[in-house]
Specification:
Layout lengths: L3 E7 L14 E7 L7 E9 L2 H5 L6 E2 L3 E2 L6 E2 L10 E10 L11 E4 L12 E3 L18 E9 L3 E11 L1 E6 L2 E2 L14 E8 L7 E10 L1 H4 L15 E10 L4 E5 L5 E4 L2 E5 L3 E5 L21 E3 L5 E4 L5 E7 L3 E6 L2 E18 L6 E7 L1 E2 L5 E2 L9 E5 L6 E3 L6 E9 L10 E8 L5 E5 L2 H17 E2 L1 E2 L12 H14 L3 H13 L17 E3 L4 E3 L12 H13 L2 H20 L24 H22 L3 H22 L11 H9 L5 H17 L8 H13 L3 H9 L6 H6 L12 E2 L3 E2 L15 H9 L2 E3 L8 E4 L9 E7 L4 E9 L2 E20 L2 E20 L2
Parallel strand pairs: 14-22, 20-29, 41-44
Antiparallel strand pairs: 1-2, 2-6, 3-4, 3-5, 3-7, 7-8, 9-21, 10-15, 10-18, 11-14, 11-16, 12-13, 12-15, 16-17, 19-20, 23-32, 24-25, 25-30, 25-31, 25-32, 26-29, 26-31, 27-28, 33-42, 34-35, 36-37, 38-39, 40-41, 42-43, 43-44, 44-45
The structure holds beta-D-glucopyranose (BGC).
Length: 875
């Protein structure tokens, strides 16, 4: 067989459960041992039962042969999909010679609950204790434990569970945890709550069964952001309905209602930002088993319904992705130890301990150590990265927290009975399930460490939403950070589902004015206890932050070919541009924005310049988007608006010598990258930019808004040489400065710690902020040269244009695109380069290589799928 169809996905996921979109999208890859393989047609079949497909009795959708080379984003167009049903599908393709493949293996998906009226379960929680008032903090509201027993009388054909919470829940069935970490994920719960679906057919047995739940405050009712707790609601609630289909055709439903039992247990409190205390002497032994005596437990507090949209889960689950062993331990005094995990990580540690009942141990976490070797906790602000465990005193006890997480490299064990060693703790690395898709290795070990730091920054912060940092009392979905890092993020890891959810978070908090906010999800307003007043959490329309509302969907189109996002986001993008337009003075945006080129070093770019540049950029993206989704009139309008903004920009900010107002690196790179200058001004701008960088000794001065554009702009304007100089710069400020000083993640600030000043101001000093890691984009797109074609996005047509440079002896890069693996490996030996390229079936590539060995000019080689090696001379 010349081609095989593999890796079938629906809505970016393998066999997803509980979808609520009526038009799910299909994806597959083709695999072939031969080169130059293309798809010329496909056929999809969907049936309500696996056997029907095998028997050729296709009852739901048969596309017949469709002449098309598309293997991504194929929208379902069959019979109306029904709630709570499973669908089975397979696909076959025809290659470029018209030879048909075998049918793929059968994949499936299931639909969730589609109508509010189908959600019959009540929302249950624990009645507030007598002392609880409006002013009670969430820490005084312990997680609830709940249970429900029932008997499955007959043989089960299928058992599905749908569950969610306002808060966080851990759901177990017959003692096995079936929910992911931190379910149901963070959304603006006033507007939208995600429902998770679980197939428990294989866990259910005939006879007595138990559902048990631990319910935490989480983002809903616990501390969230820096302004307080109980932001969305006063206390958490859980809701679940299970549908058990027996082989005799009967159905039984189990729902949360007054017949469940509730109590409190060993978790005295558990808070995302404030840590946790677990008293093992209070464990409810056996409550997850049938037959447990819950007579003393309380009747739950019930609410009939909840007035927000209940939708299928879009985001990927949060998982323990890896375990890390500490690399060193030091006993600092009796019963106290400090561990080094060797990596700034996010999650927690699992501790093994033996000791007398009632002994309390504390596990404290920090990213750095003070000069005296103690934990550096000053940068946490109000966050408390401490978990406490009270021993029950029986054998070896294992403890790990439930509804909290920490950002740390160092762990202090306090009050530890007996001798601790390297096996006493193990790090649990958690993040949203975003499998690795990109890799880069070079001949320079420091660059490799930088690359690793970028990836760890992403892993630490992609947790339900793209957060700014994982340690201090913030951990919010800052949109500016997310957009500047978005392209790097999409190369590094499969974030299709992750961003598919995040752009909805941004939509949910778009303001009536059209402004996109600077954090998402939002909570509309919050009650600020200290000032006893209502505050808007967000500030709307910060340039570069609000623009994420356009840039992230655009990135999803580029990397995943996702036109559906462009369509569903289109009205919002139009309203955003209109808002910016209305709030401008002759197309120049005012300078009220708060953040400017956030945390830039040694230069200040005028706010109105950044604001107008981003206004132009978003406008141009909306023009492109309009074109792509078939709105040529709109495209013409926004193209014209872009030209008009550009003219206003030049008039206002560019002087006769081509100097740009503020004369900063960020000013030049934004102007060049967003296409805001005349050809003459471009030349001048490049010259000023190069001069500025060189005068600073090949150093940067950019903050969050400029950083991702510096190296790409230099490369675009034939300055690869300088781009490499910045990349390998080790002196402060630079990427490698932090690497040189032991960083294992990307720091929030260039000067988070310096030899000359020590730690920066602690109120703003995270060591795990990914924004400066956006240099990863240049490494993939320029250094390795793997770029998609805007017209044939998602790497259907690939440009391979590596920036060969003697700074590095070799670069090996790969990216697992939705079509399959792309590889670009180059090495330089003497004056000879060798480039090996691999591209997947059903794609083509144009390889750009130096003409006559001269860098900066390129000749093209066309490549069909497969591998090719190019050897040439460098001048
Ligand atoms: C966050 C940032 C964010 C910024 C806005 C900070 O507190 O940590 O990453 O973008 O506020 O300026």
């Amino acid at each position: 067989m010349s081609v095989q169809v593999v890796d079938l996905k629906v809505e970016y996921a393998t066999n997803p459960l509980g979808l609520t979109t009526l038009e799910p999208r299909f994806f597959w890859k083709s695999k072939s041992s031969k080169s130059n393989k293309l798809q010329s047609a496909y056929q999809i079949q969907v049936a309500s039962d696996r056997q029907l497909l095998l028997d050729q009795m296709v009852d739901i959708w048969d596309t017949a042969k469709v002449n098309s080379d598309e293997s991504l984003q194929i929208t379902y167009q069959g019979k109306q999909l029904e709630a709570e049903k499973h669908y089975y599908w397979r696909v076959r393709i025809w290659d470029e010679e018209g030879i048909v493949s075998e049918w793929s293996e059968i994949a499936y998906w299931s639909m969730g609950i589609l109508e509010r009226s189908q959600w019959k379960a009540k929302w249950i929680g624990r009645k507030p204790e007598a002392h609880v008032t409006k002013e009670t903090t969430s820490l005084e509201i312990p997680p609830a434990y709940m249970r429900k027993e029932f008997v499955a009388t007959k043989q089960v054909k299928r058992a599905m569970v749908y569950a969610s919470a306002l808060g966080l829940y851990e759901l177990s069935f017959n003692g096995n945890v079936i929910s992911p970490l931190f379910a149901p994920g963070w959304t603006d719960y006033h507007k939208r709550v995600q429902i998770q679906a679980y197939d428990v057919t294989n866990v259910i047995k005939q006879g007595a069964q138990v559902f048990s739940v631990i319910l935490g405050n989480g983002w809903y009712a616990g501390t969230v952001g820096f302004l307080g707790d109980r932001v969305y609601g006063a206390r958490p609630l859980f809701s679940m309905q299970a549908k058990i289909e027996y082989t005799d055709g009967t159905v039984e439903e189990i729902r949360t209602d007054e017949t469940w039992k509730v109590t409190k247990g060993p978790l005295l409190y558990s808070d995302m930002i404030m840590g946790e205390t677990y008293d093992a002497t209070l464990e409810l032994i056996g409550y997850q088993e049938a037959g447990y005596d819950d007579k003393e437990w309380e009747v739950p507090d019930t609410r009939p319904g909840y007035n927000a949209l209940l939708t299928g889960t879009i985001e990927p689950p949060i998982i323990v992705a890896e375990q890390l062993k500490p690399i060193s331990i030091q006993k600092t005094k009796d019963n106290t130890y400090i561990y080094d995990m060797g990596q700034n990580m996010v999650g927690w540690v699992k501790v093994a301990v033996q000791g007398a009942k009632g002994t309390k141990i504390t596990v404290s976490h920090a990213e750095m150590l003070n000069p005296d070797g103690s934990l550096y906790l000053e940068n946490l602000r109000k966050a408390v990265q401490q978990d406490h465990y009270i021993l029950k005193g029986i054998g070896t006890e294992y403890y790990e927290p439930k509804f909290t997480f920490h950002g740390f490299r160092y762990v202090e064990l306090i009050g530890y009975p007996g001798e601790a060693d390297l096996d006493t703790i193990i790090g649990q690395v958690i993040h949203s399930d975003i499998p690795k898709t990109g890799n880069i290795t070079t001949s320079n070990a420091m660059i490799n460490q930088l690359f690793s730091n970028i990836d760890w920054g992403q892993r630490g912060n992609f947790l339900s939403v793209p957060t700014d940092c994982p340690q201090r009392d913030e951990r919010m979905g800052w949109t500016g950070d997310a957009q500047i890092f978005a392209r790097t993020a999409t190369y590094n890891r499969d974030v299709a589902k992750f961003f598919d959810k995040f752009y909805i978070d941004m939509l949910d908090c778009q303001q009536p004015s059209g402004a996109f906010t600077d954090v998402a999800p939002d909570a509309g307003w919050i009650r600020h206890k200290m000032w006893n007043t209502r505050l808007n959490w967000h500030a709307p329309d910060n340039p570069g932050w609000g623009d994420a509302g356009v840039i992230i969907p655009w990135t999803m189109y580029l990397m995943y070919g996702d036109k559906q996002v462009l369509e569903s986001n289109y009205d919002a993008s139009v309203r955003w541009i209109q808002y910016l337009h209305d709030m401008s003075d002759n197309l120049i945006r005012p300078d009220y924005a708060n953040y400017e080129d956030w945390l830039s070093i040694g230069s200040t770019t005028p706010k109105e310049l950044i604001a107008t540049a981003y206004f132009a950029y978003s406008t141009q993206l909306v023009a492109k988007i309009a074109e792509i989704i078939g709105k040529p009139d709109d495209a013409a309008y926004y193209n014209q608006l872009f030209v008009d903004i550009t003219k206003a920009y030049q008039q206002k900010f560019v002087d006769e010598q081509g100097k740009i107002y503020g004369h900063t690196q960020t000013g030049y790179v934004l102007s060049l990258s967003f296409g805001l200058l005349t050809p003459e001004q471009q030349k001048q701008a490049v010259q000023y930019l190069v001069e500025d960088i060189t005068e600073r000794g090949n150093k940067l001065s950019t903050g969050f808004m400029g950083v991702a554009y510096v190296l790409p702009v230099l490369s675009d304007y034939a300055q690869d040489d300088l781009a490499y100089k910045l990349l390998v710069q080790e002196q402060f400020p630079s990427w490698l400065y932090s690497v040189n000083h032991g960083a294992t993640t990307i720091w929030e600030r260039w000067d988070g710690w310096t030899e000359h000043n020590g730690f920066q101001t602690p109120s703003m000093n995270s060591f795990n902020h990914y924004a400066y890691g956006s240099v990863g984009e240049w490494m993939y797109r320029y250094m390795a040269g793997m770029e998609t074609d805007e017209q044939q996005s998602a790497f259907k047509h690939i440009h391979i244009k590596p920036r060969l440079d003697r700074t590095l002896a070799f670069v090996e890069a790969s990216y697992e695109s939705l079509y399959g693996l792309i590889r670009s490996n180059w090495k330089i030996t003497g004056d000879q380069y060798e480039l090996t390229v691999e591209i997947p079936a059903n794609t083509t590539a144009t390889v750009h290589l130096p003409i006559d060995g001269k860098l900066g000019e390129y000749e093209l080689h066309n490549l069909g799928s497969g591998t090719a090696t190019f050897i040439g001379k460098l001048v």
